[in-house]
Amino acid sequence: NAGVTQTPKFRVLKTGQSMTLLCAQDMNHEYMYWYRQDPGMGLRLIHYSVGEGTTAKGEVPDGYNVSRLKKQNFLLGLESAAPSQTSVYFCASSYGGSSYEQYFGPGTRLTVT
Amino acid sequence: ELKVEQNPLFLSMQEGKNYTIYCNYSTTSDRLYWYRQDPGKSLESLFVLLSNGAVKQEGRLMASLDTKARLSTLHITAAVHDLSATYFCAVAPRRNTDKLIFGTGTRLQVFP
After folding, report:
1. How far apart (Å, rounded) are the C-alpha atoms in residues A43 and A88?
2. Can the peptide bond before residue B8 be classed as cis, meaning omega within 30 degrees of 0?
């Protein structure tokens, strides 16, 4: 039981490049979330999904897109990376919304130069 | 706008001392979570507080929830170096049960 995994762990992009971050969970959770964490700003919700085939915007969605084609996977895409997107990205999942605790992946450290 | 505020933001304390971290929030909520994050690591769940008056304890940490005051506390008893980490509270808003709202975190440093 791997829990929540994220791929890749580290990535360096040049401005304007695109990439996709993959989050996978093996706990059969319905809800999945993407956060970014910047120094002194805590965790900010980018997008989330309440089930397979659904997505919704969080607090800071601009510049990101997501897809949840399979229940166990939640993808975060950056179409045209900007230096402001340099951050640590965490994926999380939960059984059913805020009534249940969220389980976090190990994080992806992204640097955009 | 929903706000979750933690204070202090940074806490440096000596081993053996006691201290309390506060988490104030601006919406109605019946559920609150505390997480721990070690440097460079992910977040780990510490406590789940499910109702007004809930109190949970694990080792030197004790968390409580007062939903009327919209306040949760994380009390540290006789701090040890291993408790050095960043602690986050996260609130489940009653109006939107899809997501949690995280506080900015309290960075705790325990020195000998």
Report:
1. 10
2. yes
CA gap A63, A47 in Å, rounded: 11
Q: Which of B67, B20, B4, B100 is nearest to A103 (CA)?
A: B100
User: In B1-112, where does DSSP find H-type helix?
Assistant: none
Best mutation target, B34, B94, B100, B104, to test chain A (most A CBs within 10 A): B100
Residues of B in contact with A41 (CB under 8 A): 104
Whole-angstrom Cα distance, residue B55 to residue B75? 11
CB-based burial label for A14 (10 Å; 0-12, 13-18, 19+): exposed
Does B45 lie at the interface with A, CB-CB under 8 angstroms? yes
| B contact test, residue of A33, A43, A68, A99 with most B CBs within 10 A | A43
CB pairs under 8 A between A and B: 55
Tell whether the torsion through CA atoms of A84, A85, A89 and A94 is positive or negative.
positive
Distance CA A36, CA A7 (A): 15
Q: pLDDT tens digit string along A24-73?
A: 999 999 999 999 999 877 899 999 999 999 999 999 999 999 999 999 99
Q: Is the preceding omega at residue A8 within 30 degrees of 0, hence cis? A: yes
Taking only the tens place, the pLDDT of each residue in A71-100 is 999 999 999 999 999 999 999 999 988 888
Cα(B76)–Cα(B15) distance, integer angstroms: 11
